[in-house]
């Protein structure tokens, strides 16, 4: 009973991060001049910075599982969600991915982002 209660409390905590990052990707990239530094907040701790030549992403957490899914399955990256979010944000280049630390809400999708951008460095 204690383990089940712990899992329920943990899953409720996860729900705080369960919103979809797609709501944060609407940016008018036409307003950014080539060579200007610009950044995007992509939800939770995800930041994308670019100067038009080089691009850095800080943290990689795009997959959001609901409470039920988290309770039934292990937390895992969803490549379809990651690809769709990067596409919606117009992100076609990432030179470096910096993961601030190893909590799931910072690192969960790092491997998936790396598979989409195989020439990227960590």
Keyword list:
122 residues; four-stranded mixed sheet; 4 strands
What report would you give on this structure?
This protein has 122 residues and is an alpha+beta fold. The chain has one domain. It contains 5 helices and 4 strands. Strands 1-2-3-4 form a 4-stranded mixed sheet, with no helix packed on it. A hairpin with a 5-residue loop joins strand 1 (38-41) and strand 2 (47-50). The longest helix is centred in the first third of the chain and has 14 residues, at 2-15.
TL;DR of this structure?
The chain has 122 residues and is an alpha+beta fold. The protein has helices at 2-15, 67-72, 79-88, 104-107, 110-116, and strands at residues 38-41, 47-50, 55-58, 96-98.
């Amino acid at each position: 009973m204690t383990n089940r209660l712990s899992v329920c409390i943990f899953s409720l905590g996860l729900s705080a991060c369960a919103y979809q990052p797609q709501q944060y990707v609407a940016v008018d990239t036409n307003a950014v001049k080539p060579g200007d530094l610009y950044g995007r907040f992509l939800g939770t701790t995800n930041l994308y910075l670019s100067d038009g030549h080089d691009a850095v992403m800080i943290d990689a957490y795009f997959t959001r599982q609901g409470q039920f899914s988290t309770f039934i399955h292990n937390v895992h990256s969803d490549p379809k969600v990651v690809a769709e979010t990067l596409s919606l944000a117009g992100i076609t280049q990432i030179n470096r991915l910096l993961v601030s630390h190893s909590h799931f809400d910072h690192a969960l999708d790092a491997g998936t982002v790396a598979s989409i951008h195989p020439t990227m460095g960590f």
